Amino acid sequence: METPDQFHELFRMQKALNERIGVKTDGMSEEDKTKWILNYCRAMSQEMAELTDSVPWKWWAKYQKFDEQNARVEVVDLFHFLISMAQVLGMSADDVYAAYLKKNEVNFKRQESGYGTKDHDDSRHI
């Protein structure tokens, strides 16, 4: 049996999960897109807080331990919401991959140039 492309499979699975809970990203109105992008941003903020709580960040508290297993779960939760957000914006796995390649190139160029000033136009082609 052929192994499915993992990135495409994540997008397929997330679409199925979203549709099961009543979120259909195909053909969303601008109002619904705005609502769901905001919902996913809020959810990701909460997941980031939960990820932060997985590491001993309270320098004054000696009882804390690094919970690597929970940190991994929180990272996966972030992927759920990030993929959902991409789908709301009409992005497929291929779209995200292509944009990632272009943005990665921009980031490398920024590092090569010392990234001394912000160029608001260097990412417009993505």
What this model shows, in words?
By secondary structure, this protein is an all-alpha fold. The chain has a single domain, classed as MazG-like (Helix Hairpins, Orthogonal Bundle). Helices cover 63% and strands 0% of the residues. It has helices spanning 6-20, 30-52, 68-88, 93-112. The two termini are 36 Å apart. The mean pLDDT is 93.
CATH architecture: Orthogonal Bundle
Distance between the termini: 36 Å
The average pLDDT score comes to 93
Strand content: under 5%
The percentage helix is 55-70%
Q: Note the run of SSEs as H and E.
A: HHHH
Q: Spans with pLDDT under 50 lasting ≥5 residues?
A: none
Q: The biggest beta sheet, please?
A: none
CATH class: Mainly Alpha
**How many DSSP E strands?**
0
Number of domains: 1
In CATH terms, the superfamily is MazG-like
CATH topology: Helix Hairpins
Distinct helical segment count: 4
Shape: globular
Q: Work out the radius of gyration.
A: 18 Å
Structural class of the secondary elements? mainly alpha
